[in-house]
Amino acid sequence: MKGNEAERYAETFLLHQHLNLLERNYRCRYGEIDLIMRDGEVLVFIEVRLRTNLIFGGAAASITRFKQAKLLRSARHYLAGLRTTPPCRFDAVLLSGSSGSEIEWIKNAFDE
């Protein structure tokens, strides 16, 4: 499984959890957000990470403080284009295992 496949796999998983897709691969000058979805009234910015081995700490360890800061700046850019700011959260979908098919969804993976 590669990056785009992992994002589609995560998207399908989240759609089955009743989230609604708003944006895929949102890009701005600050970075990229893999998925932007709505969970009820909450706007969810989602980082998808794939790690097929745990040599460097796995998928969760790859979301560094630097990456979190980029996601936060990108999310603020997205929110600036909205009329009102809804409640928001940052989730992570971690794919692991030899085929990348093991999935872990972490709601509120980090805060501002």
TrEMBL record:
SUPFAM superfamilies assigned to the protein according to its UniProt record, in alphabetical order: Restriction endonuclease-like
InterPro entries reported in the protein's UniProt record: Restrct_endonuc-II-like (IPR011335), tRNA_endonuc-like_dom_sf (IPR011856), UPF0102_YraN-like (IPR003509)
Gene3D superfamilies assigned to the protein according to its UniProt record, in alphabetical order: 3.40.1350.10
Any matching Pfam family: UPF0102
Superkingdom of origin: Bacteria
Membrane-spanning residues: none
GO MF term list: nucleic acid binding
Family: Belongs to the UPF0102 family.
Protein name as annotated: UPF0102 protein EBAPG3_001760
